[in-house]
Amino acid sequence: MSLAALPLQQHVPTASPLAYGCMGLGGRWDHAPWTDSDVDHAQAAVEAALDIGITLFDHADIYTFGKAESVFGALFRRQPSLRERIVLQSKCGIRFATDSHPKCYDLSGGYIVEAVEASLRRLGTERLDILLLHRPDPLMAPDEIAEAFQRLRTQGKVGHLGVSNMNAGQMAWLGRALDQPLVANQLELGLGHLEPIDAGTCFNDPQAATRPGALAWAGTMEHCQQHGIQIQAWSSLARGRFSGDTAQTSADEPARALVHQLARHHGVSAEGIVLAWLMKHPARIQPVIGTSNPDRIRACGDAMRVTLNRGEWYSLYETARGVPLP
Ligand SMILES: NC(=O)c1ccc[n+]([C@@H]2O[C@H](COP(=O)([O-])OP(=O)(O)OC[C@H]3O[C@@H](n4cnc5c(N)ncnc54)[C@H](OP(=O)(O)O)[C@@H]3O)[C@@H](O)[C@H]2O)c1
Question: What one-character-per-residue DSSP string does 81-108 give?
Answer without folding.
Answer: THHHHSEEEEEE-EE---SSS-SEE---
